[in-house]
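Technical note accompanying the year-one report. For the benefit of new consortium partners, we illustrate the data format agreed upon in the data management plan: each record pairs a sequence with a structure-token string. No post-processing was applied to the example shown here.
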Amino acid sequence: MKAVLIGAGQIAQQHIACLRSLTGVALVGVCDLSRGVAESTADRFGVGAWFTDHLAMLAEARPDVVHVTTPPPSHFRLAMDALAAGAHVIVEKPISTVPTEVSTLLHAASERRRVLIEDYNYLFNPPVERIRDLERSGDLGEVVNVEVAISVDIVAQGSPFVDRDLAHPCLSLPGGAIADFLPHLASLAHSFVGPHRTVRTHWQKRLGDSPLPYDEFRAVVAAEHGTAYLSFSSHARPEIFWIQVDGTRMRAAADLFDPYLVVNRLDGGPRPIALLRDRLRQARHVRLASWHNFLHKLAGGPGAYQGLWTLLARTYEALQSGVEPPISARQIAEVNNLVAALTAQENRF
């Protein structure tokens, strides 16, 4: 299959590295508005052609799949152009911040019988997939609540989000820079508790002299299969990306920045002994995961982007074999509906 990539920024390098590892996939073109960036990326990764005009690339390369890895405000137009050219489309999150644009994209993809994927890469990280396996097997029990928390210092000196000389594209989105992280929070919550019913949010700005409209976010979500608590902090330390799923039989929690999974359950017997056995089991899991992550980083693997590599590999497998893609149109619609509900309630709790 022939693939092309529009936008040669940081996340594009992960897409390219993954594509180079896939059998039966050839990256035949890369496009960026900057001629220097496009040319150097093509030269670095051995891509046969580079462009500064995506329409010219679509016409010349005639790709089967287009990867859109540009800033969010351009996603809708580029994805629509790629679908019009007859290609399947993989779009970085957020696919759009306008609900009508999301539905337009999904309708266009369905009408043309093309696959449209929004990058929910953390759904495919090993710890999250393991939690989902525990749910499917019944070991977790029924999901009661899911908590997803991200703490990243986006207000630190040198952060592109607070560069006063070059406004970050995400600052124009509802919710500002935090909107760039909401698809991660929403997609993880949705995967365990389903579509939302009601949402209550709290948006806050702790650092008054930054260009960000908000730097803290909290939300409580009542969903079809349980509740969810979502949070983003620019100030809490240490930095984390944490998911915890509470079931009626056990609790499973994972760190997605430094991937590991801890399962909390009580065995039979006297409660003090059961608690001790459970804590020792947790400590063993953390110790083994720490060594595994350390060795994996030394080996130069994708690290926290493992989920992206898995998502792309499964997407191309689905396209080649004609089976359902790993992310459905309904899933994209429901996740974006939740994101829209979260951003519609700025400063309300």
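Partners are asked to follow this layout when depositing records. The mean pLDDT is 91.
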